[in-house]
Write a structure and sequence with these properties.
The mean pLDDT is about 95. The protein is globular and about 90 Å long. It has helices at about 15-25, 40-45, 50-65, 80-95, 100-105, 180-190, 210-225, 315-335, 365-370, 385-390, 415-430, 435-440, 450-460, 465-479; strands at about 5-10, 30-35, 110-115, 115-120, 125, 130-140, 140-145, 170-175, 195-200, 225-230, 230-240, 245-250, 255-260, 260-265, 270, 305, 345-350, 355-360, 375-380, 395-400, 405-415. Strands 1, 2, 3, 4, 5, 6 and 16 form a seven-stranded mixed beta sheet that branches. Strands 17-18-21-20-19 form a five-stranded antiparallel beta sheet. About 35% of the residues lie in helices and about 25% in strands. It has three domains: about 1-145 and about 270-335, FAD/NAD(P)-binding domain; about 150-270, 3-Layer(bba) Sandwich (FAD/NAD(P)-binding domain); about 355-460, FAD/NAD-linked reductase, C-terminal dimerisation domain (Enolase-like, domain 1, 2-Layer Sandwich), CATH 3.30.390.30. The relative contact order is 0.11. By secondary structure, the chain is of the alpha/beta class.
């Protein structure tokens, strides 16, 4: 019986489950990790890893097409989409060992393959085994949300899960949705050679970002040939007698018909919490299907915890890992010590070209919260490294407390924005402001100098005019 008694049983081996199990094993707890499908979850198999792999190929093609701009008279390439997708799966296989049963077994985690059935808050059944545990961590993940649109049952649509099994590049691709996944794949497939139409029901792409950011990316998309339809509600799918497919959208009171060969549905993700009567475990769900958690990540006020995409509010791998730390530590050491989850400094990146990275408040957020703020903006077109690489487009935008250098939020639209945002994340996490960033030596010529120059723009706007006049008079006396 002792064989099947645990300190923690984690259900789901995506980012959240893996990290919670890793932490539990690291502090010598007995932990079981149950996964019914693939180790690594969505991020490894369908999300972060394959999407970044295909984006790399798409960006390489975009650079090839700019060869004259880079001083190369001739550059030719021949795309084999099947080989592109083969590479995507090779990348997955190469990273797979990081999340494998073998690795986690070596770390001290007991990995169990099968479908977990929760019998009570201290008992989980997998196949013919019954596991007794002091704590359960629910890391159930999320799945693509497919909206109910008339005629959709006639269409073999793609999602972020099925996309990676395509073998033929779609001639005409519709991307339904203007969030991060939709934007990344719209740009990637346009660059690979598809004719892409992106349909967004809201008034702009990237609804989590400020209007100036969304408009910048939209113009970039259109300059590359993507047809962007915003304020367009998908109302019906049609298939004619010849098998030709089209999507009918309502836009500005009129119907717009968009023919396509393939459609990629990127309408959000829904937590994998359905099909279980959670009330019998005193577990409550939010209206969107995510678990309702307390500040310590508990779902039942006692010994059941949840983390990752099944919780939200941010469905990112790094947030899942962040939440998993709180779940594991609180589960193992409560009531002696427990920590409230901290979401004050959460970065995210949309891997378009240019990338869009943000941490903290946007202007929209600050206005909604009635926060008095200032905006400092630095144009990347002024950055030496960006000019040298012929990628001089984008900007750094920083929100600060009015009259002070304390950072409320930062948005970077730029090549390598995902790397650049880390300096602002560190500043906000550790409580220092733009003055310290300005006083930090940044190697020349690097992209990171954009952050320093943004801090310099703020400093110039807050120069002590009275003191400078005194100093000017002092120097005149000494001439």
């Amino acid at each position: 019986m002792d064989r099947d008694r645990y300190n923690v049983v984690a259900i789901g081996a995506g980012a959240a489950g893996l990290v919670s199990a890793y932490i539990a094993a690291a502090v010598k707890a007995k932990v079981a990790l149950i996964e019914r499908n693939k180790m690594g979850g969505d991020c490894l198999n369908y999300g972060c890893v394959p999407s970044k792999a295909i984006i790399r190929t798409a960006n390489f093609i975009a650079d090839m097409r700019r060869h004259r701009e880079l001083g190369v008279r001739s550059a030719k390439f021949e795309l084999d989409f099947g080989e592109v997708m083969d590479r995507v799966h090779r990348v997955i296989r190469e990273i797979e060992p990081h999340d494998s049963i073998e690795r986690y077994t070596g770390l001290g985690v007991e990995c169990i393959t099968g479908n977990a059935e929760i019998l009570d808050p201290n008992t989980v059944r997998v196949g013919d085994r019954t596991l007794k545990t002091r704590n359960i961590i629910l890391a159930l993940g999320a799945s693509p949300l497919v909206p109910k649109i008339k005629g959709i049952e006639q269409i073999k649509y793609l999602t972020s899960e099925s996309l990676w099994y395509l073998r033929t590049l779609p001639k005409r691709l519709v991307v339904l949705g203007g969030g991060a996944i939709g934007c990344e794949m719209a740009m990637a497939f346009q660059r690979l050679g598809s004719s892409v139409t992106q349909v967004e029901m809201g008034e702009r792409l990237m609804p989590r970002e400020d209007r100036d950011v969304a408009e910048y990316i939209t113009e970039r998309f259109r300059s590359e040939g993507i047809t962007v339809l915003t304020g367009a509600k998908a109302s019906e799918f049609r298939v004619d007698d010849a098998g030709n497919k089209s999507l009918v959208c309502e836009q500005n009171g009129k119907n717009v018909t968009v023919p396509f060969d393939e459609i990629l549905v990127c309408a959000g993700r829904r937590a994998n919490t359905g099909g279980i009567d959670w009330q019998k475990f005193d577990v409550e769900l939010n209206p969107d299907g995510t678990f309702k958690v307390d500040p310590w990540m508990r779902v039942n006020g006692s010994n059941m915890y949840a983390c990752g995409d099944c919780v939200g509010p941010f469905q990112f791998t790094h947030v899942a890992a962040h939440q998993a730390w709180y779940c594991a530590v609180n589960a193992l050491f409560s009531p002696f010590r427990k920590f409230a989850a901290d979401y004050r400094v959460i970065p995210w990146v949309t891997f378009t070209d240019p990338e869009v990275a943000r941490v903290g408040l946007s202007e929209d957020d600050a206005k909604k919260k009635n926060i008095d703020y200032e905006v400092t903006r630095y144009g990347v077109d002024d950055l030496d490294r960006a000019i040298a690489e012929s990628n001089a487009h984008g900007f750094v935008k920083v929100l600060t407390v009015r009259g002070k250098d304390r950072i409320l939020g930062a948005t970077i639209v730029s090549h390598h924005a995902g790397e650049l945002i880390t300096e602002f994340v560190s500043a906000m996490k550790n409580g220092y402001g733009l003055n310290r960033i300005l006083g930090t030596i940044h190697a020349y010529p690097t992209w990171s100098e954009a952050n320093k120059y943004a801090a310099g723009v703020w400093k110039k706007a807050h120069a002590p005019e009275g003191a400078l006049k005194w100093v000017a008079a002092f120097h005149r006396m000494r001439r």
